[in-house]
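Changelog note: in this version the structure field was regenerated for every chain. One regenerated record is shown below for reference.
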Amino acid sequence: IANTGSTARDHLANERTFLAWSRTGLGFVGLGIALETFGYQRSSQQQQPQQQPQQQPLSAIAAHVTSSNDRLASATLIGMGGMFLAFGTVRYFNVLRLLTQGKFQPNTKGIGMMVASSAIITGT
């Protein structure tokens, strides 16, 4: 590739953008794994024998619901992280191809994906 005009700068910017998508995806995956680990540790502490002879039925139900919610949240974060990693990789190669052709396409899909995932995480 000939380095005329801003060619090198454009390709380096594309690489930085790919790395940003990768960091975001790995951050989501790491947060999901941490949440799952924390939920597992919390549930194992709750299952240890208590000094009371009878366990309250409502606390057992609450522990199960909390565990299910932790798993769902963890799976959601890991899935979103995987989506970000996949999207960043596909976007990198698409932009690379377009840059070699002298074209460029704005990142409308990525912005929409970030807005949708943020809305899902915040629960709105």
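Spot check on this record: Residues 10 and 99 are 8 Å apart (CA to CA). The chain has three helices and no strands.
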